[in-house]
Amino acid sequence: MLARSSNEFGAKIVQERVFEDTGGARRTDSGIVQIQRQIPVFTQSAPDYDVLVAADESDVFAGYLPYRTWDARPVAGSAGLVPKSWDAAHDQWGANQLQNRFMTMFRRRMTTLDGQAWVAARMIGEAVSRKQSADPKIMMEFFKSPDFALAAFKGRRLTLRDWNLQLRQPILLADGRVIAAVSPQEGFLHQVSELDTLGYDRPETRCRLK
Measured at the alpha carbon of residue 117, what is the angle toward residues 113 and 121, in degrees to the nearest 5? Predict the structure, then answer.
C-alpha cells in the first residue's frame, strides 16, 4: 500500500528495511532499553531521505522510532504523524460537541474505533429514517444512491463509492496531541470527488459489489 501510494502521489522510496523483532520483553526495563538501542542502529547509514515511513500493524517497533532515528528526520505511518479516520484531538467542524458528549457518557476520549462505530451506527440510522424501513436491501440501495450523504464532523459529506462501497471520507493526520493536517491535501484534484484521491479509485479496482 505504501509503495502504491508513493507511485500515485509522486514520492520516491529510497530504501526499504525490515525490522526483525527479537521477541524481547518490551514491557520490562531491560526490554525497553534493548529496543531503544536497536532503533538508531537500525536506521543508520540510510540514503538521504525526507521522512521515515513505518508500516507496523502489530505495533512492535514503530512507537520507538520518533526521536530515535540515526538522522534527525520526521516519522510517519504507524508512528509520529499517523493517518486516522478519527482521533481524540479532533475538534474542528463541530467535532468538539461530539467529543464532549462522548466524554460525558463514557468518561474518556473517543478513539479511532469509537469513531468508526459511531459512523456505522449513523449510517444505519440515516438509512432507516430516510427510507422508513429497516429492510437491508432497501438500506443498501440507499447507500449506493446519490441521495446518501452523512455529516460526520469532518468538513465534508461522507458518501460511499458505488462500485465497491468504500467510504469516502477525509483522513486526519495526527501526532498524538493535535491534528497536524487533513487529507486530501490541496492541489490533488479529481474529476468526481477529491476524496477519491484517497483509497482505490474506480479505474484502480476490479471489485464490484452488488
Answer: 170
Under 8 Å CB-to-CB from 118, ≥6 apart: which residues?
Answer: 86, 98, 110
Each residue's pLDDT tens digit, 38-85? 889 999 999 999 999 999 988 888 999 999 999 999 999 999 999 999
pTM to 2 decimals? 0.81
182 sits in which H/E element: strand 179-183
Phi and psi, residue 185, nearest 5°: -75, 155
Domain boundaries, the chain: 2-80, 95-204
Alpha-helical (H) ranges within the chain are 2-9, 29-42, 95-106, 112-131, 136-144
Burial category of 129 from C-beta neighbours within 10 Å (exposed 0-12, middle 13-18, buried 19 and up): exposed
- Reading the block at residue 44, the C-alpha cell is 543508520
